[in-house]
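User: Can you write out an input/output pair for a complex, sequences first and structure second?

Assistant: Here is one pair. Inputs:
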Amino acid sequence: MNRILVLCVALLVSSTATAIDTGAAFEDPEMQARYENLISEVRCLVCQNQTIKDSNVFLAADLRREIRRMMAEGMTNGEIADFLVARYGDFVLYNPRKSGRTLILWITPALLLGVGGFVIVRVVRDRMKMPIDDDVLES
Amino acid sequence: MARYIALIVAFVIMIGIFAVGLERDPSKLPSPLIDKPAPEYELPRVKDPMSTIGSADYRGQLVLVNIWATWCVGCRQEHNYLLELAARNEIPIYGINWRDHRDDALVWLERLGDPYVGSGYDEDGSVGINWGAYGAPETFLISANGTVLHKRIGPLDEAIWQAEFMPKITAQTGPIR
């Protein structure tokens, strides 16, 4: 019984041991919240569908370290995003900016919706012009 | 009739988009550094920790900067080609040993040969980040005025060299004879 208990405790502890970045990066809870928010917005380029917050890859750890350094130096979120985009391109941000080359990402859905709406309106109008039933024609 | 033509045009456009999109490798990202000034760096040398090597050493020269590591399979794959390229004396190759262990890097250069003018030892990966590195090997072609002309992610070989690098080099220097 004791052994099982020890095993359970060991398993519980081990799961926290593998967690990424154990312990807070900043003492100030506001900075910590900002940090966690930032790293959950940055793509890990090696494991492309993960954020650097979720990834264990060394590159993600390096990027987290750079972000901590920049935050400690007093850089704003915008400046940090600029730093990352200048090196890794727009793809590095999970929430791409609404400017320049990424504009097409934001416009296309609206554009497609507009085209679809236009087609539907056209089709419906054409049908409304059609006689409602054949009897009317015959009479 | 017009409706059918519109449908066919839409279909052809879709096929075009798929033909381009599906052939692309999403793990290879375009570098935002192309046509921008190459990052400056200064690192301790792999072979001599007491002296440094960096961008200042190749200012005014057309060079290759190759990001490599001993943990990187592609780097092993391209290594013989880099040796061959270095032996041709066409272009100096500067190495950035990225996130590696110095001992391993030394053994690698000893056993396999050293194609580099020198390699900087980027232990914590901060220089790699400035170069936007995410998947070694990465090779950059840097012009004499310090502009990034081309970036290749993945191992080099002669076919890639001729197809991607040579046109950019000859555009800079005129044909190499």
